[in-house]
Design brief:
The protein is built from 17 helices and 10 strands. It has about 375 residues and is of the alpha/beta class. The strands form 2 sheets. The chain has an 8-stranded parallel sheet with strand order 3-10-9-8-7-6-5-4. The protein has a two-stranded antiparallel ribbon with strand order 1-2. The chain binds flavin mononucleotide.
């Protein structure tokens, strides 16, 4: 694995190692995937202006909500992660513990939030898809708190599921009916098939307890019917009042929504278009970040994700105004490409590239990186 030179290399390996429907689920976006491409195109258009002869030996520590993380990037919430490789969620969580960055456990993770929290050794956050049922929200928050989690991320950009055409083409939709194409894709991915057979097909342990004894298919149906599709700012306010820790709102794309979220007591804004998986015509995450930072000024905590594939991208986002940066697909390309070693390789590649880029632009620390390093 050590010869994978980039996240892109890991993605290429993942493509042949796991079945087409699983890769399509990870790699794909919504609609014509314009938003997915736009995230990358606009990030690549961010040009950095290096400062020479600074002798900088960069400090990559990022302080967020009173905590020092050794790196300024983390793992975004990813649902169905163990579909990409059995045990992938914990492989990613262990990287968070090893390198000192946060990992966000999804409501629809295929690993219990308590197990992710344990593996992440104090670095786990929890992402909530707000349920229609109050009792479920309350219980999930209580469980996250009991597991030692203090950062809550509430995702607001799924009022309806995105139009994931790769999933449709692969018939990877509910109700799931395995057909000839599914069997053919499994045959092309024997390691994945055997490993998945050994570990059992991934479920939704965070939510399973709320539906009693049901089979996987019914549970998946339960989940899609449970996500609150008529979420309002009042719901966010009530979550704010319930949660004693820090709360971020994820899926914010405009300055006016950012101001509303902060106004009702959010501790931070998570700029995201869900990695191009929801509204296809959404702005590129890096453009929203720039507009939101300009509107809010330097103080409010603004984090971002969307299209990050290298440490250099993390620096681009930092110079554009992000206090912290998250990666969704990158770690899972790694796990899908080579299991634990692949997840570790993804994390190491991002970390090494981040440090190299800070040295190259003559920036002494993440905490002072700002738009002075943007080429204008
Ligand atoms: C396979 C997959 C599953 C995801 N599941 C969730 C989820 O459960 N909750 C959530 O808030 N975001 C989810 N996201 C979005 C990510 O948290 C993140 O916003 C996005 O992946 C960032 O873009 P990137 O993949 O280009 O880094 C998912 C993304 C992917 C690729």
């Amino acid at each position: 694995m050590s010869n994978a030179a980039s996240i892109g290399d890991l993605a290429k390996r993942a493509r042949w190692r796991i079945p087409g429907f699983a890769f399509g689920f990870l790699d794909g976006g919504s609609g014509e995937e314009d938003g997915l491409r736009r995230n990358r195109d606009r990030l690549e258009a961010v040009i950095l202006a290096p400062k020479a002869c600074t002798g900088a030996k960069p400090d990559t520590t990022a302080t967020l909500f009173g905590r020092d993380y050794r790196l300024p990037f983390g793992a975004a919430p990813v649902g169905m992660g163990n579909l990409l490789w059995p045990g992938a969620d914990l492989m990613v969580a262990r990287q968070a513990a090893r390198l000192g960055f946060p990992v966000v456990a999804s409501t629809v993770a295929t690993t219990a939030l308590e197990d992710i929290a344990k593996a992440a050794d104090g670095n786990a956050w929890f992402q909530l898809y707000v349920s229609r049922e109050e009792r479920i929200n309350r219980d999930l928050l209580a469980r996250a708190w009991a597991a030692g989690i203090r950062e809550l991320v509430v995702t607001v950009d799924v009022p309806v599921a995105g139009d994931r055409r790769r999933d449709l083409r692969n018939r990877f939709v509910l109700p799931f009916k395995p057909g000839a194409r599914f069997v053919a894709q499994l045959a092309m991915a024997p390691f994945w098939a055997l490993s998945t057979l050994k570990h059992g097909s991934p479920g939704f342990p965070n939510l399973a307890r709320y539906v009693g004894e049901v089979d996987g298919k019914t549970l998946a149906g339960f989940i899609s019917s449970q996500i609150k599709d008529d979420l309002t700012w009042d719901d966010l306010k009530s979550l704010r009042d319930q949660w004693q820790g820090r709360m971020l709102v994820k899926g914010i794309m405009t300055a006016s929504d950012a101001k509303t979220a902060l106004g009702l007591g959010a501790d931070g804004i998570w700029v995201s278009n869900h990695g191009g998986r929801q509204l296809d015509s959404a702005p590129a995450a890096i453009d929203s970040l720039s507009a939101i930072r300009a509107a809010l000024g330097p103080d409010p905590v603004v984090v971002m994700d969307g299209g990050i594939r290298s440490g250099e991208d993390v620096v681009r986002a930092g110079a554009t105004g992000a206090d912290f940066v998250f990666c969704g697909r990158a770690f899972y390309y790694g796990a899908a490409a080579a299991g634990e070693a692949g997840a570790a390789r993804a994390a190491d590649l991002l970390a090494a590239d981040l440090k190299r880029t800070l040295i190259q632009i003559g920036c002494p620390s993440w905490s002072v990186l700002d738009d002075g390093w943007l080429w204008r």
